[in-house]
Fold these 4 entries.
Entry 1:
Amino acid sequence: MTLKKRLLSNGLASVFQKGVRVLEQLLLVPFFITSWGAAYYGEWLTLTIIPSVIAFSDLGFGTAAANSFVLRYAAGESQKAANINKTGMYIITIMVLVAMIISLLTIFILDYFHVFDKSLINSNEAILAVSILILACLLNFYNQLIESYYRAAQKAALAINLLTVKAALNLGAGLLVLLLGFGVVAFALSQLLVSLIFNLFYWVKGKQVLSLFDDYKGKRDKVILKEITKKGLGYLMFPAWQAIYFQGTTFVVRIVLGPEAVAIFNTVRTLSRSVNQLLNIVSSSIFPELQFEIGQGNEEKAQKIYRFSIVFSFLIAFVGVVFLAFFGLWFYKLWTQNELVVPPLMWYIFVVGLLFHAFWWSSEPVFRAKNEPYKFAMSGVFSALVSVGLTYIFSKYLGITGAALGALGLDVLMALIIMPLSAKMLNMRVIDIFSHGLNDMKKIYNEIKLKLKIS
């Protein structure tokens, strides 16, 4: 399969995956409320905070091991890749055991202080259901590394489609439990059963797709262990800038401008960033191919993929900006039932931010592809802190429109820092991205035009 076809397959798989995730988020809610009642469902959401937090524990180490594995395999270092897999599995298992101990201690402490007794859900059922969900989350810790088998075999679309099937199975199992009138324990068991069966199949299928482990037996390596741990801690910093930015700016707006301003600020930001879902599809589509080409040392192909992602993301953002500029405020009023009044200038500031966001968000995969998390993480934390500070200053003098300017600061700073840095990592200049990138898009357009004429 050619590079273009793989990119297209990845894109289509990502679109389908997004659709199932949106369906999962929207479809279950009315069934939860109908089956359990709003208050009981609210208690359940509160309880699921514990497994949700636990799920973040492996974000760094699984990603670090997976990226190292793909880069070594693509470079032809099969034995090193097998050693990384073995060492990565060891680290992830350690993380699972640590997470289990922390989870048990957390549940014990909460039970000791009778936190579960204050819930509408029976305390014994609540403890059992949360424990089962935590186990289901822990089983997913291995999926990052297993997914790298498919990337290494240049079958990323297959991995995305399989994970989409898992999401659909989770949705179906959850719906069945709710329709049959069962409670929280049965719901948690349904999710655990899906994880057990799917993850075993995902692992076996991944090993078949790659066919590396029949010839190479991995062994634990202390040097690899240190490298994965170091990079894993870097990936754990990825959510830090998001927490600082989103929670920090919200807190500042609340302190300076009050609760109603928070409602306006967050709803405007949410709606204006709806276009970002399309940018995420581009990012997830190009990442596997970008990483493989980098691993193989095909710098020219890697540069081409990178240029394509930048230009295509900018075009999507531009169309999104035009659409939101003309119709966004009308839809916002409809969405909020005219309860919130938004200054037009504030709206346009948030919308323009999409253009800057497109530049740095489409550059982010380079850092993961090269397995260099610290450069991106530190840039993100710095930009988030500056943005929170600007939000405070501008809010005091310009009100909620000033808060929008402060929030825009993050996207502007990240575009100025991340895009040049990622281009340099691929031995490119920023000007090359646009000059060559536009030519790439013209070639693609002419190829499509020619095929349409032939057909």
Entry 2:
Amino acid sequence: MRAVWQLWLQLWTRLPVLAVLAMLMCLTGLVLALIAMLDARVAYVGMGFVAFASWFWHIGLGQVLRGVCRPESFLLPGFRARLAWLGVADVAQWVLLPGVLLVLAGPPHGALIVAGLVVVAALGLALGCGRRVSLAIWAVFIAAGWMPRLASQVVTVALASPWTAPLLMLCAALLIRYALAPLLRIQDADTPTSPLENASIGRNSQSALDDAQARRGAWNRWLGELFDRAAQYALERSLQAYRRRPSAAGRLALVRRLLLPHDNPQALALRLVLVAGMVVIYFLAVMHRQHFDAAVVGAYAVLLTMARFPQLGRGMLRMRPNLADLYLTLAPATRGEYQKIMVDALMLLVPVSVLTALAYTLLGSVLAHAAEPARMLITAAIVATSASLVALAVHLIGPEGSFGRGAVNLVLIFGAMGAYWGGYWMLGAFGLAWGALALGTVTISFGGGVWYAAQREYQRRAPRFDAPLG
């Protein structure tokens, strides 16, 4: 049982904050379940706490399993048996113990609540293992909002049917099997990809806990091949141009193609088409039943573009050993020259982010029938420019620890959202021309100043090619 205990402790070791919060919520739910023996209505609140705790716990557990279930791990004696015992302990902790307290309390629909706990655990585990099928729960919520009367009738029938609980248990079992089957299958790993790629197809979504790559389905593999062909085509074009006319600009273009393989025009167009298709489907599902302030679309577009820069911080850390080859290939005269080449190459992310934010905002304004699309576009362009400069600067020279990067990114997101809504109000109060001038003067000057100081600091530092610890 010592091996099972060590497996159970992995979540506490790797994600201690999540484990502590989940356990506190679980204990709160169990205490409420004990109180529910006096008042059965309290049991629903207690099981709600347990369900939330189970959701977060199993997301972390799925990430741990994705790092533990490597091909070499199966050489350990009895590894599969230990994993099975870990599953038994998990079921006892998150299903059997709350279920016993629930039976003692005796609230209505107790069996459905226990089955719901199993489904929540299965969804969390699937999400932690990188199986996006768990996100299908959002399709259920969208469908329920689309046809609320039918959803209400289905819920009423399900609560009264004795087959609902067994059906939920069966769905949970199938979901767990679907999530764990790739982890228990011994197979060759996929070809390593660039940590700075931006295909958004799940290849680079592995947890920071390990270097294990997420197992991809046929759809993701097909999309990955499209992006890889676009990256290869762009690299060959840049290489041919450099061979015909060697220059500093051509060398910089080659470095950009190597560092940022999916930030070429073909890949950008493909990514915009994919996002546009998903956005159109969402709007067709919800626009007939609800209306919202179209300005939210611009804020969400800026938020999506900001999500790229945390990947820059993580990716540059992981690429350090590989960047030694790039340093030797470029053979710079000084270390500052090499650092400047890196800074100039990564600067491409700023116009790419602004273009992406404008494209998302334009698409959203058309679908949402925005009354003031120009106001949204101008605000998004100015805020995306300044926010991208600040984010690039901070993640280039900022903290290397995951907690520090997360805290900095949180501040950046709140700052960008505040700048967007303040700028949107400013353009409405002072007019497009004067409002844009005032907003741009404040935000872009701030972003430019931060970027100028950051790139000077980065050029002053010595290049590092050691692999990050942990």
Entry 3:
Amino acid sequence: MWLDRNELVSLDLKLTSDYGDIIPKIQIGYDLFNLIEHNTSIDTETKINLKEKAVICHQKIKMMLFAEKCAIENLNEFEVSQNMEMPCLFGDDETTLLYHTESTILFARNALDVVATIFHCMAFHERNDSFNKFTKKILKDENDKFIYLKSYLCEIDKLDTHAFRLLCGSERGRSLRDQIVHQTNIKLEYDEYKEGSNKEKLFIVLYKGEIVICYREFMRNFVMEVVEMISSISQKFILDELENQL
């Protein structure tokens, strides 16, 4: 399947059109296309294969955004039926919300692992589909080949609630994705959101209560950060390559 620049960019426009209320501007296809075309060390056939990975990444991102959209819609429907001074999330309502929440997280990690194939090829000329392994290898790199990329990853690695830390793990242990797959469910709890208020908001509880975030805020920021990561890493790759040519 051959894809040219216009076809890849059109996928960006479609995502922006469908999910503009979530992420105002999406340019994953544009940035991945530039990254693939800019590299002079890979042959035409490899570029075609990598562009196909870019399309699959787009599809995974769309599924992530759709799951997030469904989660918020289901939450809205649930809260309309509740006395928000004492909302009671359980049974099918809880299961439905957990389904869409965990789907959002799993498709996000899926998208990153798909795009990791492109990033591994660009950086190390090897086949690997683990985003976690890719970022750890870059962060441990001791030469000056990936200055901009390493600086960016170091910056987001400092943010405890950033999608990067949640999806790739930290000193706390397993990543959020691994916890969902191997250990437990996402924990959702209603609580007062400001002192003196009788109404409650839904919060997502992470790492056994170490991190508690307003659910709506978490979901919106999470999907935005995943999309931003893919575009930013692509851009940093190009900056590093230009720097190395000087």
Entry 4:
Amino acid sequence: MEVVAPSPAPVPRAVVVAPAAEPTAEPTAEPTAEPTAVPAPPAVAPPDSSPRRQTLAFVVLALVGVFVGGVVAWQVVETDSSPSPAASLPIDGWPVAGESRAVTEVLAGGELQVTHWIHADAPIDEMGLALPDLDGTDVSATRVQVTADGRAASGPATVTPSGATYTFADATRIQVRYVMSGAVELSSSADGRGLATTTSLEVTAAQARDVRVVRSQEVLSLACAQPQEQPVPCGHAEADDQWRVELIGDDARSRVLAVVTVPS
């Protein structure tokens, strides 16, 4: 019987067709182009050099950005503290001697109806009103009415850029009413939103303690600005439609700004 030698074992197909690199291909694969792509820089609109726009841009940032932190900080601090004396005072009516109060109502279209109650601690016979000095903002005040101890004062019904003076017999309780126009800058992107760059005129008879109240359909925040200084958050909300701030000493001459929803 012829003995046939066994044939060599065939080489397995896996050894021939499966390259060694295939199992490690996934870990060593080159990253896709998407993560390493450099995004094109965003288009930047040319800056607006208008002084008014620059001022408004700063104030909007201060009131919309910084104010969020300011409101939260106030809520945290005030939660465990007793209300300030101003919080218990009536908004309408006469303050005590040596104090003044100004209430600003935002009207439809952005006009401001302002009423001052000034209770001087000594008789006075003259008072001045002045328009705020705001770059690029044309503010006017009309329908001015001044009464002193219940009697009409002598003076113009419109405050001009040079100011206006009102005279009367010695009095300690002076009420001032007027309508301001041009103080509210309406937003071009948020329907009904407005920035009041000032909420009242400058009054020479303002007392050492002055309470300012701003009312509107909705009042979002207040800021106070001393002359030649940038505005900072101030005051607190008493309701969705009302904010109040108490100014004492040198702060009583501060300008008060507000972000509001303007009534339609």
